Amino acid sequence: xxxxxxxxxxxxxxxxxxxxxxxxxxxxxxxxxxxxxxxxxxxxxxxxxxxxxxxxxxxxxxxxxxxxxxxxxxxxxxxxxxxxxxxxxxxxxxxxxxxxxxxxxxxxxxxxxxxxxxxxxxxxxxxxxxxxxxxxxxxxxxxxxxxxxxxxxxxxxxxxxxxxxxxxxxxxxxxxxxxxxxxxxxxxxxxxxxxxxxxxxxxxxxxxxxxxxxxxxxxxxxxxxxxxxxxxxx
Length: 234
What we know:
By secondary structure, the chain is an alpha/beta fold. It has helices at 14-26, 50-55, 62-74, 91-96, 105-115, 129-133, 136-142, 153-168, 172-188, 201-205, 218-230, and strands spanning 6-10, 39-43, 79-81, 102-103, 121-126, 146-149, 194-196, 215-217. It is built from 11 helices and 8 strands. The model has no long low-confidence stretch (mean pLDDT 96).
């Protein structure tokens, strides 16, 4: 493994960040401790809610995000991964404020889709209301030949948003049924796969039976992108 040190800007939420570091470790092809990627987790749950900031005029999370980035820079990190999809609504401002590359979670998800043999066409996107309103996936995936289907507003209010809140409250198993229902609806509407575009959603989906169609776990996708950064080809 490379000597590169990964910075993880987390705490949004804490369980998703902890799971990201777990999956980063589990996905590493390692036989001993020294084969793993060094990383530093900056887990700050005080970052203001990203969806509230975008949709309801809540406190701006950018100062807290930049504080974390500065801390990871000072710790000697060589790149930053952010296991929170909605935080990528401030990607340009964060990237402009640091010399370190920030691995974009939507690009990681697109690479995962291509790796599953889904190189174009319709894909379902599940995420927070903030992520969908900012069109983080729609804009970036459109450039790569995908057309995004998102849940209907009624499903967001009745199923997706409450399920994300259940995960944040530690009631992970209860989140499975509503999330699985929405994912299945997106497939019936013509999606070739469903992107779990909020890092709480894979935790809920993984708490129940495996879904019978392709999904992209953005926690795993970002972990693989970080490992690719740490061990560049050639």
